[in-house]
Write a structure and sequence with these properties.
Layout lengths: L2 H6 L5 E3 H8 L3 H9 L6 E3 L2 E5 H11 L1
Antiparallel strand pairs: 1-3, 2-3
Helix pairs in contact: 2-3
Length: 64
């Protein structure tokens, strides 16, 4: 199992921005910046963002 899959194993299929914070060890502002800038692909649902786990895995692969 790759390092990326180890980090995301057991997570729900869709995450909130707040869920990114402990996974990536970043603050709220940085998490929202990653989503708003498109570095992590997301889906807008009303006023909130949802991040598919595979989008997080792709981001982790790109940055490692």
């Amino acid at each position: 199992m790759s390092e990326t899959n180890k980090k995301t194993k057991g997570l729900p299929l869709v995450l909130k921005v707040e869920d990114l914070m402990p996974i990536l060890a970043i603050g709220r502002n940085m998490a929202y910046e990653l989503v708003r800038s498109g570095q992590i692909c997301s889906i807008r649902v009303g006023r909130s963002y949802r991040i598919p786990v595979n989008a997080l895995e792709e981001y982790l692969r790109k940055t490692s």
